[in-house]
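Handout, section B. The chain below has 171 residues.
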Amino acid sequence: LARALGERMERSGDYTLPFAAIAPTLSAADIAFGNLEGPFCEQPPYTKEGMIFRVLPRGVESLVFAGFDVVAVANNHFSDGGNACMEFSLARLREAKIAAVGAALRYEDAHAGAMVMRHGVRFAFLGYSYAPRNDAPGAKNAAMAGRDPAQVRRDVAAARARADVVLVSLH
């Protein structure tokens, strides 16, 4: 949703572009889950090239249009805008009623995941990155869950205690 595609969406004013062809399929799904590979940032710069992904705030409209219910934000680009963009992104997703997994304002919440109920089945979603950030209890800024096997096992066990199905995204 960043770089050239972000520029194209901004120039056209059409934030449905990324998912126009597949939105009917995603919207028809009981649960649409994806990876958000970059943060929404309230302020520029919004780079057009290179490997820094910073998404315009209106980019969340594409996720809403496509019908996403849950996005994994534990990845190597979600912290490209630093703590401010991570916090802004989490707020934008919450406002859009899209659950974010793998990163949160607190370490415990980054590891707790999200619960979604469909047709009487409780689904737990967890997300982890090979590039963790502030992944320690008591972290002062937004945390991104790392792929520590022992912690992932503990998180999955906790999720299984409250869900029928546990889905894990490893980035």
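Note. Residues 112 and 155 are 7 Å apart (CA to CA). Compare this with the example in section A.
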